[in-house]
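From the pipeline queue, job 12 of 40. The input is one protein chain; the requested action is below.

Action: predict structure.
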Amino acid sequence: NLEADASRKRALVGKEVNDQIATGVDSEVRGLTVNKKTSRKRNNAGQIEYETLGGAWVSEASVNKGHSRWGNDTYAQQAALSYEMRKATSEDQIRGLGDNYHNVTDGWGMSANQAGGAWIGAAFENQGQHLEYKYTNWKDGTMGASRPGGDVKSDGFVDEIYEKKGSYPLAQMSSFSVERLKDAHVAAEAIGDVDQMNKIKAISETFMSELGGGMYAPPAGGAGPVVQPGARTNRMANTPGAAHVAERARELADMTGAYVAAPTGPHLPPPDHRGTSTPNNMDQH
């Protein structure tokens, strides 16, 4: 069984690479993702250094050793790519990884099928932190533009979050994941894809909370719900993640209108669920 044999080989090589990383000396693994012809280079105190795919700087010696050890092993190259995906932290590093991957695969001598397979495998390994990798085109780092009825990567990205990801798992991802949602909203707005825009707004709603109830149920015999004196009805982003993710979630809410437009009706204590409900939300208490 060729697929089973390949899976076993990939697991063994992946263990070798990750065992190397576990020693605390990861420069050779990171150096494997350098293409000397296209990667950025600098002179640091007389030593030539290259920038890895994920944005680290390693010595030319580490680059040479990494390529000498694993330069012809596609499984090791995928493991190194997966590690760079984990190590990239800033939005510039994450965007640069997608933009420059094709240059690295040229240096590895990969075919298009091998390059695409390595990207998909590494992306699935990292989807808990960077769901956007799973839907990124490895050839140019884009997700494509949304279009009505389209089957492009940004549509799949939005759909998976809309159907399967709540605010907590999304908030545990990188800020760039939310940035990709903003990109998708801009693309959808440009072509009038209302369905896509509504999905992204619904996603941004999951980050919103309201301070105060705004209304309360009066005592028995009262005339009905009344505004609670001094009640606050403003909304805020409640993001259980990193500060940068919270910033991006707030920007997304501003973009979609979720920050200022409360979707719920009056907030009443149980068991009363009275008031006017919106098309997609029942009243909450």
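Job complete. The mean pLDDT is 82.
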